Amino acid sequence: MRSILVANAKGGCGKTTIATTLAGAFAQVGLKVTLADVDRQHSSLGWLERRPAQAPRIEGIDWSKKIDSVRKKTQRLIIDAPAALTTDDFKLLLKQADVVIVPILPSAFDRDAASAFLWRIDALKPIRNGKKSIAVVANRTRLHSRASRALTDFLYSLDHEPVISLPDTVLYTDTAETGLSIFDRRDGRAKVAQEMWLPLIDYAERAAA
Ligand SMILES: Nc1ncnc2c1ncn2[C@@H]1O[C@H](COP(=O)(O)OP(=O)(O)OP(=O)(O)O)[C@@H](O)[C@H]1O
Ligand SMILES: [Mg+2]
């Protein structure tokens, strides 16, 4: 089993969007996927409830109270972490994961919070010694935006250059409405968006292998 933890101490940065999209991507290629929702808001589990029966199946599990075992058959485990995660709670989740994805929004407030979070997790042993790696995603970026440029510069300065940058688009919000991910869609717009995820999927697959 390969396992991906999506986390950032900051709320609303796109953790659930990334967790559900990755779950959709892996399910679409026929892998057995489990989506573990650690957040009491149960956004990922709500998304699964809306998911149509004919879409590739994703198993949902509730980890908001405790970390439970995962079905033996699971090939990809995606863990959707809550905001305001303490270092101790993060460490528990990190034990379950091969790679951590950290989404960050282009704003000064989000940069400050992310800087503190990355500093905290970079210091943890499995990350320090390279056993587990971190992939940063610049999320909701906008062309020609000062904040988007500042985010990229900031991430380079921290030696965490983004593996991918995702644009700010209603495609994600609209697609999630019906329990689908962009990987469950065949239209041109979704296909263009899917391409952008390939470096991240590749990164996670290689880090977890
Ligand atoms: N690339 C994007 N473009 C447009 N909207 C986005 C994008 N990514 C996320 N969103 C929207 O931003 C909001 C927050 O995203 P999401 O719920 O994924 O964040 P989160 O980090 O899981 O939040 P929380 O900390 O509350 O769990 C949602 O309304 C989501 O649809
Ligand atoms: Mg969430």
Describe the structure.
With 209 residues, the protein is an alpha/beta fold. The chain has a single domain, classed as P-loop containing nucleotide triphosphate hydrolases (Rossmann fold). It has helices at residues 15-28, 43-50, 87-95, 108-122, 125-128, 146-157, 170-177, 188-208, and strands at 2-6, 33-37, 58-62, 76-80, 99-104, 133-141, 164-167. It has a 7-stranded parallel sheet with strand order 3-2-4-1-5-6-7, with helices on both faces. The radius of gyration is 16 Å and the shape is globular. It starts with a strand and ends with a helix. Residues 15-16, 39, 43, 80 line the site of magnesium ion.
CATH topology (fold) name? Rossmann fold
Described by strand count, sense and barrel closure, the largest sheet is: 7 strands, parallel
Count helical runs. 8
For the CA atoms, what is the radius of gyration?
16 Å
Structural class given helices, strands, pairing?
A: alpha/beta
Give the tally of β-strands: 7
Note poorly predicted spans.
Answer: none
Give the number of domains.
1
CATH class: Alpha Beta
Features:
8 helices, binds adenosine-5'-triphosphate, 19% strand, 209 residues, single chain, binds magnesium ion, alpha/beta, Rossmann fold, 7 strands
